[in-house]
Amino acid sequence: MRRKIPWITYAFMALAAVYLLAPVLWLFLLSIMTQAEALSTPPHWIPEHPTLANYMAFFSPSERQSLMGADAIAAMPRAILNSVIVGVGVALGNVVLGSLAAYSFARLDFRGSQTLMFAYLVSRMVPAIGIMIPLYVVMQRLGLLNSLASLIIAETAETLPFSIWLLAGYFRTIPRELEEAARIDRCTWLQAMLKVFLPVALPCLVATAVFGFMSSWGSFLYPLLFTAGSSATTMPVVISNFATDIHTDYGLLATSGMFAILPPFVLALWFQRWIVSGVTSGAVKG
């Protein structure tokens, strides 16, 4: 017999959905308003004259020639590509480096492992703005300023401690007998890890990759600090150019925001089952 869920649970879920989706809905409504309607007082919650002009400006050069944000719109395709490259690089870095470190914590019993894990978590609590000057000097000495490599390195270093903690907790739930059986079948340590261990840990690996991608996708401080010009600038920096001291185009700002939230939303929706499984198992056993 199915267990009945109290009505208060449904009410709480409905309130949570409204709390999460209302900002996205308002962003969409703002993106289909004219500038005059967006600035109207009192505000129009429902557009009286909806328009797709803001979206057309991103795809048609003729539509954006008369707009003050034309330069920012023209830089968006390259900025989106840069954000994707950085996001994929950070995701791969978290999976590869995080897996190797987490495996050591989960399977090797060495002195100071708990202290080292605690140090990783403490480093995650340091705000990025507190270390931006040393990071800038390091990137400058390495000749990595205004390059995507500097963003990948910085974002990976920031997200890696949490990824190690998450993966180590999940790795501890995997029986050692699987690896022992692979070693009996004459697999090397690397073969056992690649063919037996990591496929079992796939849900947590996916969760780690998605976490790394999303963290770097919305990052603003490091791209603003390390890059200049359109060659390495990412999307958050370009979006900020729609709001200046003398003019703010709320329609274009909202439209670019819609473009920004779409990839993470699709990614989370696509891998939601694996993300939930990987995060909950790693957190409970960590």
Automatic annotation (TrEMBL):
UniProtKB keywords: Cell membrane, Membrane, Transmembrane, Transmembrane helix, Transport
Domain called ABC transmembrane type-1: residue spans: 80-271
CDD domains for this protein: TM_PBP2 (cd06261)
Membrane spanning stretches: 84-106, 118-139, 151-171, 192-214, 220-243, 250-271
Subcellular locations according to the entry: Cell membrane
Membrane topology summary: Multi-pass membrane protein
Location (main, coarse): membrane
Similarity remark: Belongs to the binding-protein-dependent transport system permease family.
Protein name: Carbohydrate ABC transporter permease
Organism encoding this protein: Alsobacter ponti
Upper taxonomic lineage: Bacteria, Pseudomonadati, Pseudomonadota, Alphaproteobacteria, Hyphomicrobiales
